[in-house]
Amino acid sequence: MPYYIGDVIKDYKRLVIRTPEDFKKSGVDVKIKTRAEDVDPKKGIVSLSDGTTLPYDILVMATGADAARLGLPGEDMEGVFFFRKLTDALKMKSFLDSKPCRKAVIVGAGYIGMEMCEAFRTLGIETQVIDILPRPVLRWDPEFAKVVLEELGKNQITFFPGTKPLSIEKGKDYALRLVTDKGNLEADLILIGVGTKRSNELAESLKLKMGESGAIKVDFSQRTSMNDVYAVGDCCEVFHRVIGKWVYFPLGDVANKQGRTAGQNIGGAPSEFPGVVGAQSFKLFKLEVAATGLTEEEATKYGFQPVSTIIAGLPVGRPMAKGEKLGLKLIADKPTGKLLGAQAIGEKGAVARINSLSVALWSGLTLEQIGYLDLAYAPPFGGAWDAIHIAAQTLARKL
Amino acid sequence: MPYYIGDVIKDYKRLVIRTPEDFKKSGVDVKIKTRAEDVDPKKGIVSLSDGTTLPYDILVMATGADAARLGLPGEDMEGVFFFRKLTDALKMKSFLDSKPCRKAVIVGAGYIGMEMCEAFRTLGIETQVIDILPRPVLRWDPEFAKVVLEELGKNQITFFPGTKPLSIEKGKDYALRLVTDKGNLEADLILIGVGTKRSNELAESLKLKMGESGAIKVDFSQRTSMNDVYAVGDCCEVFHRVIGKWVYFPLGDVANKQGRTAGQNIGGAPSEFPGVVGAQSFKLFKLEVAATGLTEEEATKYGFQPVSTIIAGLPVGRPMAKGEKLGLKLIADKPTGKLLGAQAIGEKGAVARINSLSVALWSGLTLEQIGYLDLAYAPPFGGAWDAIHIAAQTLARKL
Fold it and tell me: Which residues of chain A does B274 touch, with a Cβ-Cβ cutoff of 8 Å?
């Protein structure tokens, strides 16, 4: 019975699976293009779309999430893309290889939208971005969105805020026309990146307990409410260490960690995934954009009393600076002095600062402590007082 | 009495001092080229080398350290330099501006030696380095020293290990000749960078208690054993959080933090400097070289049971890698699983990893925790499993 995960997992330390060939060698039977239609937890049987069934000892729900659709008329036309899976990228690549694309319109200024801006411009494609919200990347505060907008502008990308897409139709000068409440945009390619949508059907048919967020409820071992059923990745919740609550936070690195935790527990090495602090980042042309923890708005929502500061720092020591900037915002809880979140943006050093601050958040450090952290000082990499110290000390004075 | 620090410090929040002019404006009387010869703590009086005296309420010892000398015959010849103060750098600059320098020999392969390698090569000066030790930058383990040596080689710098300088004399083909136990090296310039030496005279005349390291003993508020006498910077000890002991660790960023702490306490804002974890770094041409915490040798010396691992990681996500490498070594304590130290080297991302790990060290995290830290993942900045995670999980298996 090669599909008993327990049979394989015994040797998990030596098992490296990267290709279908590896799977074959490992003895794991991978059924592609097959959907799990139904699960009978009493009998331990999964019914598949090819009409067969699979018995199981342990079931891992890793059903992920799909790209959210807007249900626009014309959403299925050729040249309209959603981005979620490897196959989505391959489809777009073959589209771009097969015909000249002069112009792209991106619907949604989140991660996918921002990252694809750079990809399109690198290919020489004129690019425009619309979003129903007033600014791009809402996770970052307006001061940071301003820098993002400037970077888009520098790269000849127009951003249309507060713009609602209504439908897609055939264009006149370009293949497609996106009709919005603010007018029409024509393009050869339209990419819709407006977040994710989970399909909970299988979980619900199993009667797994769902969390407040609507995703599958798990514990620190990735166990669901049902015996012998684990869940990992974008279909389940994750513990947020700053809030102290289970939330929905579908990111690739989190899914990896949950998968490892479930695998270890299934393989007999008890293991817990201690949760996230909300670290995230993306690259936009020359900019690093990063954040961790909570925004002020989230902090208020979760009962904290946030205070914040923004500093214009340097990613290197002052004598070495060649005009680089590093914007750093810290958010802390007034009564406890603990860090709650941080945002950073700059040509370099933004992700590095956010990572150090993520470890500080993880450990529950206060501004007082962060103001004196021991960082590896050398002028090419920062000042004797790093931007982190300066921001923490500045904010500490507001407590 | 403008030299009463208390008079000035009242306004410390608004006081920014960068130039002698700022000092004048601030009302602080700065006596340059004046040595404090003696202190009478009972009367609260400092005797100066210009024959005058200064009364004080509070005394801050910030006597620093000097560049160590080797006492070599010829050490005072023109073209021989020690590097410690701004004036040392200015002297070398005017020497280099005044006459052509074809070749430099550096004695000592520590921070000063390594950083000056790059400076000399940038000026087109042929450069050789000798050290009495078997490898450069002893703070890093042999695997890392090997990469440092390769980088030196790529930049046409020859390193002579285990070489003892004996004397300096007039050269034949170049202005100077360094005589060593392994032969002679001629050069137009010789830089001696072999560490620092404190002058403890004043502290001893004051009968300040000295620590085990031989530097002035202070507490977390930077107070010495004597009422109203503070000490900061390279003349005093600092608390090492990993070892839990007071040590001598003379680095610029530490001195800054101690100065701030003393200033706050003197100014009436009680403050403690929580100490260091040993973070340090330098840039060598294209390489970032960084370390934090303890080496295995130090860990053993201080009673830990170190285990370690080295991984060859990536500073970016695998699909984005263009041949960059990131060497990362972690050292942990076998019985507790706590991180004790880390070393990193690479074209990019080495300092960033060491800074995150420094925060982990500061917070006393275990390998188990570090293996699941939430870092801001995006492929341009690291893998979904960062080098930090991989190293921590690899080492955790040795516990």
Answer: 369, 372
